[in-house]
Amino acid sequence: MSYWLMKSEPDEFSIDDLAKRRTEPWSGVRNYQARNYMRDGMRVGDGVFFYHSSCAEPAIVGIAEVSRAAYPDPTQFDPRSDYFDAGSNREEPRWLMVEVRFKRKLKRNITLAELKERRELRDLILLRPGSRLSVSPVSKAHWDFILSLE
DNA sequence: GCCAACGTTGGC
DNA sequence: GCCAACGTTGGC
To answer: CA(A10)–C1'(C12) in Å?
Structure first.
């Protein structure tokens, strides 16, 4: 079992939205590294930290799990979608997505500021300078440590 | 293959 | 809204 962190802007899709929907196709990832993590790494049942980005208080706010492994993201084929990619095609889809299922909200939000204070987390990909990956791996040690902060 | 220009991300 | 960091694009 592996662990991951996925970013979402709460104005677009928040942990409360996921709680209501129960499961959500994670469409719109248009970064090759993030796609490769989904394709090569993410398996059904993997743990996911749900992170709120681009907001007043960036933080890990909840836990989800992978409920479906990578499959082609249909929005790449839809000319009306913001995520349309004219360079992709159905025979060889360029972009993939996974589906995630809500597990629970954290008892309290663990803020980016707090994560940065913890020496134990200095290698967390989220905290690497300039890291903008919307999907990134989390080691079991980091996963367990972050949960211990809850 | 290089690299400048451009667009995006995301914290602040 | 600013801007640093990064990825992508496209001319050469």
So the answer is: 43
User: Residue A135 corresponds to which tokens in the numbers above?
Assistant: 């999907």
Q: How far is the CA of A87 from the C1' of C10 (A)?
A: 15
**Can you give the distance from the CA of residue A53 to the C1' of nucleotide B10 in angstroms?**
7
State the pairing for strand pair A47-52/A59-72: antiparallel
Q: How many CB atoms lie within 10 A of CB A120?
A: 13
Residues written for chain A:
150
Burial class of residue A123, CB neighbours in 10 A (0-12, 13-18, 19+) = exposed
Q: Residues A79-111: pLDDT tens digits?
A: 888 899 988 888 889 999 999 999 999 999 999
Are A52 and A58 a contacting pair, CB within 8 Å? yes
- pTM score, two decimals? 0.93
Nucleotide nearest to A134 (CA to C1'): B9
CB A62 within 8 A of CB A10: no
